[in-house]
Structure formats: structure tokens, C-alpha cells
């Protein structure tokens, strides 16, 4: 009896390992772009584009999320018709190939606006592929999981999105440290994209050895496969009602919590708080490292107490605490305020002069590093535009602060605050795969669960960095204005979920 149990456990372990590795690599591929948005923006758009380069790059990044629901429809239909295994094997190939090609595209200086157009096309392919990946992997694992442990086993798949981000951040930081900041910004940023082809090759090899889901195999042998998964998913009133409930009562709120806590946090620290490139990523790396085990904790706990209130509690905590957390980020990095009384030392300014605008004007830049008594360091640049025409207006002077490095104590507090945000991610995301799988019948499960997941997570959630950054750039807005988008979406989802979602667990996936 014990031997039989060990064999079953080993089989499930292999299923989880193979599914998780491929999904992790797909998330890695998808998120490299967002992690390098500032550098990529400088490569894809004119050098004088300024803030619009970042916003345009985030728009290209968001495009990959917008098409994810279409990928869910296309590959979800294939998954319900031909099987789980071969469908998410195909998505892996598409994702890996697109990521590799992004690393090869020339910069704006070489091919002009063809560069962002080509990257946009490849981002769309990535979005389509990811739209088909997650539903297949989650369904595949859930259909292998024993009764009473579906939340626990599917939660391992849930870790892959965050671990994919962790892997992408780690490789980016390692590459930048090896090559140096200037070389990395020039061409070294391409290396994380190119490396993905090796990871994809390993995953394809492993996935080729996987067997089809036993639940789908049984359904196929009995001749019960859906002839039209799209029609059955969205034209049958009862099933379509569950699709809408999953979207507005769960995945929509889960999506904005996910992308606020992990992506917008990094973007905010780097672009609003002006933290050093490595500093912002180290904070997120430590936070993710400490928080990731809680995906499994909350997934397993949902097998005992239900999925609903764990997910909704994560949304509620985000609604309440986001603004105070981000206000602290701003206050703790307000170097001009600290500098009034606490400047400890300053390096000798380095002065450079550059002719711009066809030789009509000159830019004089004076850059120095400063150290404050509280342990914070930063670079301060005074940029003076000197008109060559003596009748021109008074030279324009601009002071820019960047590359802020925190004191040890403040750095620790930042890790704890980002850790708290990622902990909320584990609460909303850990149980959601089991929740979605249990909502829908086997013959249309891949299609039915993929669409609300990718609209909620991909569209509502994926647009957080772009919309929040855009809103914060409006005249009259504050750095915290962008948070109203994720807070508002999470609040709406919380209310709908609290009223309409059932807290039952462990519905038979053979239904």
C-alpha cells in the first residue's frame, strides 16, 4: 500500500516539476521586458524623447497583456479539443522564439521606428502564447491532483509567475554587474533575452516526455470532448455567468494586486523615488525570496478553509495599505528635504559640455555624488542649456537627482514593505488556480478558465504600470495618484466577490 502511494506521489511531483518549469520560463520571458523598460525605451525611441519614451515602452509592454485573452481563446479551444500537453508545448515554443528575437532587434538609431514596431509585434506573440500557457498548466496539474489537495498542488504553479520575475531580475542584475552599467545599457541588456532560448530548449525536452492529463484522456476515450468549446463556454447562460463571476469577483482584483505589488513597486522605486538600478531590484529580489513560500501556504490553507476569503482578504489589505506604503517610499527618499540639514560630504563636481540641436545650443552638466548623515547617497546633476544666440532668454537650469542609495535601516524597511505587498500577491494568487479549475466542467475547462484569468490578470492587472504611470504624469496629479486605479479595481472586485462568490472547496474536477 505504501509503495503504491509513493508511486502516485512521485508521478504528481513529476507533473508539477515539468509544468512549473515551463511556466516559470514563460513568465521569465514575458517579464524581462518590463524589468528593463527604462533601458529598452532609450533603445527603441529617439534620444530626446524624454519621459514619453518610458510611457511608450510601457504601452508596448501593456500590449502583450491586452492580447492575452485572445491567446486564451485560441489555445484554450485547442486545449479542449486536442489536449493539454501539446497545446502548452506549442505556447512554450512561441514564447521562447519571440523573446529570443527581441534580443536581436536593432535599436532606433539603426532602423528608426521599425525597432519599436518589430518589438510590438513580438510582444503581441508573447501575449498570445502566455494566454494559452497558464490555463493549460493549471488545468494539467489540477487534473492530476488528488481530492482535498488541489489548492496545495496547483499553488506550486502559482509560484512560477513570481519566480519567473525573480529569475529575470537576478539575471539582469548579474549581467549588469559583470558588464558594467554603460555596456549593459548599450548592448548587454540583450543577453537576458538571448539566454531564454537555452531555458526554453530544456523545458521543451522535459515537456515532450509528459503524458496527457488522465481526466482529459478519459473524456476523450468516452467520446465526450466538446465539439465547440467556445460556444459551450460563452453561449450557455450558466457557464457564462461563472465566467463573469470569476472575472469580476476574483481575477480582476487579483490581477491589480499582483502587478502593483511586484511591477509597479519596482517602477515606482526606480522612476519616482529615483533609486539606483540595482538598489530597486535588490529590494524586490529579497521581498520575493521571503514571500514566495506563502503561495504554497495559502494554496494549502485554501483546501481547508476555502478559497474565497483568503483571496478577498489580500485585496482588502491592498486597498487599505497601498497609499500609506507608497507615501513612505516618497518621504524616505526625499533627499532634497534631508539635504537641508544633513549633508555630510560631496564629491568634486564633474563638468561636461555637449553641443546639441545642430550646434545652436550647448548643454553644460555638472554631476557630483553626495552623502547624507542618515546614510543615503545620491547623484545630483545640474543641467544648464546655454543658447548660442546672445539675444536668447536666460539659460535654462535643471537639477536632477538620481541613483539614490538608501541607508541600511531604510533599505530593510523598504524590503519589508515590498515583502508585505508580495505577501498580498500570494494571498490572492495562491488559491486562484484551484478556484478557477473547480468552477468549470472538464470538457470546456481550459477555455472557460483561461479567458477570465487573462482578462483579469493580463488586462486589468497588466495595465497597472502603464495606467498608474500615465495618471501620475497628468497635470495636477501627485505621485500617488496612479494608485487609485489598482485600489478602485480591487475594491470593486472585493465587493462583487464578497457578495456572489461561494466559499466551497474541492469540487470534483471530473464533473
Automatic annotation (TrEMBL):
Its main location: membrane. It comes from the Bacteria. GO terms for molecular function: transmembrane transporter activity. The keyword DNA repair does not apply. Keywords: Cell membrane, Membrane, Transmembrane, Transmembrane helix, Transport. Gene3D superfamilies: MFS general substrate transporter like domains (1.20.1250.20). Residues 15-505 form the Major facilitator superfamily (MFS) profile domain. GO terms for cellular component: plasma membrane. It is found in: Cell membrane. It is a multi-pass membrane protein. The chain crosses the membrane at residues 12-33, 53-75, 87-105, 111-131, 152-175, 187-206, 242-261, 281-302, 309-329, 413-437, 458-477, 483-501. CDD domains: MFS_ShiA_like. The keyword NAD does not apply. This is Sialic acid transporter NanT. It comes from Dyadobacter helix.
